[in-house]
């Protein structure tokens, strides 16, 4: 089994290195090939997603992605920016289904900014649509005929795009507590009204799942009021991006949340990455929490390599390390990225 490692920028290489060490400790028949992506690729080759990187991503059985983003690239024309590489990989590989589980690991109640008894209830999966929405619509920045600067980004969803992600969310809910909350802004946006109509149609095939709809502004509030009410959240690309960062802090830290980006309910050739970015403010200092990436490696084993037992071994090791008191700075501790990786390795049974 070939795993493509795309470490990227900032803390990406630091956290991917720890996830690799954990994967290598499992005694599975895995091989690794690394390629440049993001700002690192732009500086080396002039493009954030070189053809050889895309080819490796397509050839590999699964992709472990670190993060992209480099402040020195923020003024480049948009196609050359690091983030475009990630968006292009998602689009090119058809990875429309982004699973972002947010659970509170035992002992992390004190790391959450919520009251411990409220944080303790967090156990949800955000199912985020990943290849549509305002991210991929027509966009431009220009001067209008009356001389004003204007920018726009077109938000749209087609019914088949909504249906396939809704199916993923219902299938997920079926295997969990069978409670699905679809989040939109149907009181204002036509895109969201279509979203809501199609989700209701798909619901007819899942009578065992209780479906509710919530406006995104209320959802943001409910996430900090009572996150325990959520089992599976289904939402679009932009709302899912925002709500998942918020959910991560409720669960202790953005350094804890993994993700899987899949092409269907089964995860053949998926891409796995922490939900966080390249964190330029702490890059190169050994301060990053590698757990989100280590847990992404567990998702990779589960969804793309059919190695459920190995995935659970990793998750149990992260949990045991945290219970034993291992903490990076974001969790209120003192461990370096490498020392946190060591703690997970030491807890691996
Ligand atoms: P960020 O997620 O990189 O960082 C936000 C804050 O969280 C920072 O204070 C950072 O230090 C902290 N943080 C993030 N990950 C952490 C970890 N593992 N351990 C400890 N602390 C962690 O978001 P940002 O600052 O808005 O963006 C920085 C760059 O990353 C931008 O260029 C952005 O476009 C990019 N970005 C990339 C991805 C991705 O590759 N998937 C995701 C988000 C942002
Ligand atoms: C994420 C990131 C990306 C997104 C950016 C870097 C394109 O924030 O993976 O959450 O918005 O999807
Ligand atoms: Mn994000």
From TrEMBL:
Biological processes per GO annotation = L-leucine biosynthetic process
Q: Which UniProt keywords apply?
A: Amino-acid biosynthesis, Branched-chain amino acid biosynthesis, Cytoplasm, Leucine biosynthesis, Magnesium, Manganese, Metal-binding, NAD, Oxidoreductase
Catalytically driven reaction(s): (2R,3S)-3-isopropylmalate + NAD(+) = 4-methyl-2-oxopentanoate + CO2 + NADH
PROSITE patterns named among the record's database cross-references: IDH_IMDH
Q: Which cofactor does it need?
A: Mn(2+); Mg(2+)
> What are the residue positions of the site described as Important for catalysis?
135, 185
What is the annotated localization of this protein?
A: Cytoplasm
InterPro entries listed in its UniProt record: IsoCit/isopropylmalate_DH_CS (IPR019818), IsoPropMal-DH-like_dom (IPR024084), Isopropylmalate_DH (IPR004429)
Please name the Pfam families in this protein's record. Iso_dh (PF00180)
Domain of life per record: Bacteria
The answer to whether the entry has keyword Amino-acid biosynthesis is yes
Query: Which Gene Ontology CC terms are recorded?
Result: cytosol
**Where along the chain is NAD(+) bound?**
277-289
Q: Which residues bind Mg(2+)?
A: 217, 241, 245
Q: Which GO terms describe its molecular function?
A: 3-isopropylmalate dehydrogenase activity; magnesium ion binding; NAD binding
**Main location class:** cytoplasm
Which pathway, metabolic or otherwise, does it act in?
Answer: Amino-acid biosynthesis; L-leucine biosynthesis; L-leucine from 3-methyl-2-oxobutanoate: step 3/4
Which residues hold substrate?
90, 100, 128, 217
Q: Entry cofactor note text?
A: Binds 1 Mg(2+) or Mn(2+) ion per subunit.
State whether keyword Cell cycle applies.
no
UniProt-listed Enzyme Commission number(s): 1.1.1.85
Q: How does it assemble?
A: Homodimer.
Concerning HAMAP family, the annotation shows: LeuB_type1
The similarity annotation says: Belongs to the isocitrate and isopropylmalate dehydrogenases family. LeuB type 1 subfamily.
Q: What does this protein do?
A: Catalyzes the oxidation of 3-carboxy-2-hydroxy-4-methylpentanoate (3-isopropylmalate) to 3-carboxy-4-methyl-2-oxopentanoate. The product decarboxylates to 4-methyl-2 oxopentanoate.
- What name appears for this protein in its UniProt entry? 3-isopropylmalate dehydrogenase
Native source organism of the sequence: Sphingomonas alpina
